[in-house]
Amino acid sequence: MRVAMIGSGYVGLVSGACFADFGHTVVCIDKDPSKIERLNRGEIPIYEPGLDDLVETNVRDGRLSFTQDGADAIRNADAVFIAVGTPTRRGDGHADLTYVHAAAEEIAGLIEGFTVIVTKSTVPVGTGDEVEAIIRRVNPQADFAVVSNPEFLREGAAIGDFKRPDRVVVGVNETGGDIAERARTVMSELYRPLNLNESPLLFTSRRTSELIKYAANAFLAMKITFINEMADLCEAVGADVQQVARGIGLDKRIGSKFLHAGPGYGGSCFPKDTIALVRTAQQYGAPTRLIEATVEVNDARKKAMAGRVEKILGDSVAGKTVALLGLTFKPNTDDMRDAPSLTIASALIAAGARVQAFDPEGMHEAAKLMDGVEMKDSAYDAVEGADAVVIVTEWDQFRALDLDRIKLLMNQPVMVDLRNIYRPEDIRQLGFKYRGIGRG
Ligand code: NAD
Predict the structure, then answer these.
(1) Phi, psi of 40 (to 5 degrees)
(2) Domains of the chain by range and CATH?
């Protein structure tokens, strides 16, 4: 099949490369010229494990290409994917659909023959209807279907998630009749390589599909927030949150994933999607109070993390040096969007601390966003002269630090481990003053 992918960011680029690897012919389009230039030079503009090889192979085999001008690709496509950003709209928390609407306008005048327009971006319920209306208005003769196909990949494990998904949700307009059937056929063909024993495709109505994505993210955000509150309770009562998580997670009804206490969720999806869902629910008069509380508790938690550093340093960080290890919102990505490190660093600086930091892949993005933070070349450089080291993101390399060396480099051996990657007894034995999350 011929695919045009509008938006070549974390989702568009990974999806495009994976569809090409399935054997389809894919053109990835982006309006950012520097992104396209880099891709055409063989450089990958984001950090995602395995993506460089996947892109290189498929470009070499002629199935994957990149362009700023997608007109031809859209004209020839069986399916045009919209994978543009849907950030939080300034001022009210709703999803900003500017980029989605603009993409729909662009597509409308170009499509020829039956074309399936697929919304892969995370969009509020009813967006498919809007995209359909835009295309119909601009091009009343067009033969097309608008389908919702939300993406569930995780940054850092994106290729595996795309190629071995738990499910692929496809929402079609149920009143679409024959057109809906043709759209289902195109979507089944696109994802056919995933059919091993049975197809992972879950067909629903378009509105249901749009809501599934928000419901999934809100549920996961709520699960993280639940264990974070349990962690605080563990600290108050003298219990261990990791054992609580294990003790509840072994119950198959609960499951062990997303039960790691930490500094609060961040990233390009959970913060914006939870608030957008809250706004949609309010707009329809069906408020989701659990998610409202989740958003509120998580925001407060991120802000409270700097307080933990202050507390261990005698209630003040003024004039002290704090080293942050890990800046991205999670390991194995360079994505800094809504990362807890941003809130933590600015609170520490506001309280008078000097902040030094290191991240294995996020330094470039972080430097643009973290005014006043001194970026260092390694974890060891970052801890030099520090009064406290804070593990913010659990990159593997921080699990195997030479702690004797760290201790020698620091002004005093103090560690705040916001990801519980060390065992308190081990680290205290080395002479560190240590504080984790939710451990007695
Ligand atoms: P991103 O910001 O990395 O990429 C979006 C790209 O779209 C940018 O490169 C931008 O230049 C381009 N773009 C915008 N308008 C365009 C247009 N009219 N024509 C061509 N290119 C255009 O965003 P992302 O992280 O890939 O997210 C995209 C969508 O997928 C969002 O709705 C997000 O919520 C959703 N999503 C993201 C993830 C994730 O882990 N990042 C996971 C699942 C779903």
Answers:
(1) -70, -20
(2) 2-199 (3.40.50.720), 242-435 (3.40.50.720)
